């Protein structure tokens, strides 16, 4: 017998797949964009259309549900997370990639209940990568179950890591220091340009860990449940419990790897969502 989460998820998945067509229409890039917080933080009309499509469709089916959307917050909406079912939306994660035509952008949609992610969808329509998870039911890529790697030591780990979309001088220094630490101690570093897709790579077992400072709830809500359902862990980069509103994340294949990385990282604490 299906649960309410199954019903919510099925409706969301249909909407996400449909919204993906808006991104597919710009496979070679989207040259019309606006600046947000700085000269490398972009928004396009497609971001806004995808988010509105998801909010309208889900609101119609589930009128009592709440929403936290990247573009709605950018336009002045409050980022408030209660215990109620809340859809946390990044309509185009990897907007810089989307603008340039680099094919690693995705729709990231997480369902959070009682402040915990219980379902997640990460969809890259350009490469037809559909990552999904529901609490207690495993994680999947295009319908095939996926699992994290079993890497326990940084010296054997491939780490997904981003510079981010901030010119803040203090944060930039920490990014460079952490890059140096990971390059000197790990197997290597990879950057897809999308927080959600980096987390999906951990769930897939392609990367062994991913961390970032300065992300938002909409970047990680879906990735959190997908990584956990694939057998991995999500924690705070300092080693404590993960907080979806903290703008900090460290996910890894194993608790041992997560804790080792947390001891190596230079920490940065952005203003909370």
From TrEMBL:
The lineage of its organism: Eukaryota, Metazoa, Ecdysozoa, Arthropoda, Hexapoda. Keywords: Hydrolase, Magnesium, Metal-binding. It comes from the Eukaryota. The keyword Amino-acid biosynthesis does not apply. Mg(2+) 1 binds at residues 70, 219. GO terms for molecular function: inositol monophosphate 1-phosphatase activity; metal ion binding. Its EC number is 3.1.3.25. One of its GO terms (biological process) is phosphatidylinositol phosphate biosynthetic process. Pathway: Polyol metabolism; myo-inositol biosynthesis; myo-inositol from D-glucose 6-phosphate: step 2/2. Belongs to the inositol monophosphatase superfamily. Mg(2+) 2 binds at residues 90, 93. InterPro entries: IMPase, Inositol_monoP_metal-BS, Inositol_monophosphatase-like, Inositol_monophosphatase_CS. It holds the Pfam family Inositol_P. Its cofactor is Mg(2+). This is Inositol-1-monophosphatase. It catalyses: a myo-inositol phosphate + H2O = myo-inositol + phosphate.
